[in-house]
Specification:
5 helices; about 30% helix; six-stranded mixed sheet; about 180 residues; 6 strands; alpha/beta
Length: about 180
């Protein structure tokens, strides 16, 4: 699978109620915690003042609420393909019970299906928008890491921590770095 070579900024949603409780959220439509609302409001200054070609979220509340606090004047486009992985019977369980990514959780979504769904959504966005802000989930970030670095195993991206993804000049790899406030 390949990712369309176009620049974008990725943001993991703010802290959800499930995050705060140390639970696997996955497809569960958990809203932001009070701390999450504050995180998103505080991070607004980092991403505001930029001419985003689109603000894209998953269809889950935690990403849509994050978008509304980050950029209240922007309409956001929801993509079901950006939803977090369906963890099946592990939804709502302690994060300590999470299985390795390459294993399919009981009644859950297989990693290859999840990865294909996410990459398809990302490629749709990247083919239609010159400089999008994508607000999604840690699992989506792990898909990006797997596509770029060959493994889904990486440190969990922080809540509301913007990351810039730029294809390198030769078009073979990617530069991934903290977002510094590039204005398009």
């Amino acid at each position: 699978m390949t990712l369309t070579k176009a620049p974008f900024v990725f943001v993991r949603h703010a802290q959800s109620v499930y995050n705060k409780s140390g639970l696997i959220g996955g497809f569960t439509d958990s809203q932001l915690s009070e701390e999450g609302v504050l995180q998103a409001q505080k991070a607004s200054c980092i991403v505001s003042g930029v001419e985003w070609s689109a603000v894209c979220t998953s269809t889950l509340k935690r990403t849509q609420e994050t978008a509304s606090y980050l950029l209240p004047d922007y309409q956001h486009n929801a993509y079901e393909g950006l939803n977090e992985r369906n963890w099946g019977d592990l939804e709502g369980a302690s994060i300590l019970q999470q299985t390795p990514y390459e294993l399919t959780p009981p009644n859950g979504e297989p990693w290859p299906d999840f990865e294909m769904r996410v990459v398809k959504a990302l490629n749709t966005i990247l083919s239609q928008h010159e400089w999008p802000l994508i607000i999604a989930h840690s699992g989506v970030y792990r898909v990006l890491n797997n596509i770029i670095n060959g493994t889904p195993y990486c440190p969990r991206v922080g809540n509301v921590t913007p990351i810039t993804f730029n294809p390198d000049q030769e078009g073979f790899g990617w530069s991934v770095s903290p977002y510094k406030g590039k204005v398009k």
